[in-house]
Amino acid sequence: MSRRKNFAQGSFYPESARRIEEIFQESLKDREIDYTLGERRIIGGVAPHAGYIYCARIGVPLFEIIGRNEEGYDTVVLLNPNHTGYGHGVEIDKNEFWKTPFGEVEIDAQLRDEMSIEVGELSQKFEHSAEVILPYLKYFIKSEFKLLPICIMDHRYSTARALAKKLYEAGAESGKRILVIASSDFTHFKTREVGRELDNYALEAIEDLDSEEFSKRVRERDISICGFGPIMVLMEYLKLAAKNPRMRVVARGDSGEINNEDQVVDYVSLIAVDA
Do β-strands 178-183 and 41-47 pair in parallel, antiparallel, or remain unpaired? Predict the structure, then answer.
């Protein structure tokens, strides 16, 4: 049985499960979390994928809400951007298991086969943006689930819409309860003021669930949201899966809160629900 070799463990996040748990619990201290955001059926969310020292405090509230309100998921679809340029424009990982410090997660081979998407291992081999999300999922979701990691290098709106349709149809055919997580950081290496203004411009379109406008705004202002393709897939999937789709911000922050630098990377977590 093939198992993906972890690339980011020990750099983006700690080697040990105990240390990760400590970081997660520290991230919950003295933080007000709006649990009402998850009172409706949770379809998915957007989570940051930087090193835990920088963004765990932004990602943890999302996964805490998901874990607390969970009804049980058969499969978590993890949509992540391709930073390396390896592999296909859209690629599902070919391995049978992914490893985490909290134990292994089995790949949903059945759903993978139903998707009719390129399968390979190059896109995820040296990529951190899916791997770093998995410990959050494994820790906060207490029930067993399978994983479908989809790495996206093709960030066109048409691709996002087509992929969302394939995912929705495959999920509906299988009857599985699916959670969709889009992995993305937001504006990179701008001042806090500029970054927040750019993110607000993009978030306006996200909360309106207007993927075309979101894509237009990202390209028009050259906003460095690295996972804007995965976010568009989530938005389009949400509109198919929910009768009353909503996306709302759960938490925001930036790397300057940790390293005190003027040029910061922004992090935003959002939750997608059927309200």
Answer: parallel
Instruction: Please list, in sequence order, all residues whose beta carbon lies within 8 angstroms of the beta carbon of residue 144, skipping any fewer than 6 positions away.
Output: none
User: Amino acid identity of 260?
Assistant: N
Q: In 82-157, which ranges are E strands?
A: 90-93, 97-98, 105-106, 119-120, 146-152
If you ran DSSP here, which 8-state letter would residue 208 be given? T
Residue type, 198: L
Q: What's the total number of domains in the chain?
A: 1
- Find, among 145, 156, 148, the residue nearest to 115 by Cα: 148
Q: Which two tokens stand for residue 31?
A: 């933080």
Secondary structure (3-state) at 195: helix
pLDDT in tens, 211-259: 999 999 999 999 999 999 999 999 999 999 999 999 999 999 999 999 9
Mean pLDDT of 5-11: 97
Over 80: is that where the pLDDT of 167 sits? yes
CATH code of 215's domain: 3.40.830.10
Query: CA 212, CA 142: separation in Å to the nearest integer?
Result: 36
Residue 69, pLDDT score: 86
Pairing state of beta strands 75-81 and 105-106?
A: unpaired
Element (H, E) at 245: strand 245-254
* Phi (first) and psi of residue 228, to 5 degrees: -70, -25
**CB 23: neighbour CB atoms within 10 A?**
16
Q: Residue 45 carries which side chain, given as an amino acid letter?
A: G
Q: Which residues contact 10 (CB under 8 A, 6 or more apart)?
A: none
Give me the percent of the chain exceeding a pLDDT of 90. Answer: 95
> For residues 62 and 268, is the Cβ–Cβ distance under 8 A?
no
Domain region containing 36: 3-274
pTM: 0.97
